[in-house]
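Handout, page 2. Input:
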Amino acid sequence: MIHPTALVDPAAQIGADVHIGPYCIIGPKAILHDRVRLLSHVVIEGCTEIGADTIVYAFANLGGPPQHLAHKGEDTRLVIGERNTIREHVTMHTGTVLGGGLTQVGSDGLFMVASHVAHDCVVDDHVVMANNATLGGHVHVGSYVFMGGLSAVHQHTRIGRSAFIGGLAAVTKDVIPFGSVWGVYAHLEGLNLVGLKRRGFSREQVRDLRSAYRLLFAPEGTFQERIEDMSLEFAHSADAMEIVAFIRADANRPICLPRPD
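Output:
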């Protein structure tokens, strides 16, 4: 169903059972897959693809050009997965040529009012971004991450799987998988135990993660020595080894640490 007040370019690719509400604007390079619902006043710009069963609320702008001084109008892309809920005033921008030309958002996410996904970001599945949560360019957010309201992630930062970002936190360093960070300048407060419980992690998995966390951030030895000790002692734990792999994947990136006592 396309409302008579909507402006839909004839070149746009529209799937089956798509709902386009009043005053929406759909550009010529948009691709809307089956059963996408745009409620009203939604703007879809640029080379933007939206996966099936995604619902977009009023005044969201998807596929706008990146806020980057080097962007000169090139045809870069925004690809959004399936079954997302994108609430009012959300913005998601296309990539930049320098960043690979693609902003990618996974499936089954919830993007609350006025949250923002910047150019060249990769957002995995089942991510929740609360009101006004913001990603700078080139950020990678792992699956099942929860970002609290008014939190912000600095460009090029990595957020590991199942991490929790507290409200108002300014994240300038990488966050380990399963970590929980708080504070105006975000620091680790421990593991995201609530998220682990909700996702059905077993008691043994949580026990191993807590022990590995204590070893990783113990006062003895150097950080590199503790990573090596952790990789040996917890080689049986896929979750603990995911933290090790995350840290080793980009040794040049600083990570969020607990506050010193």
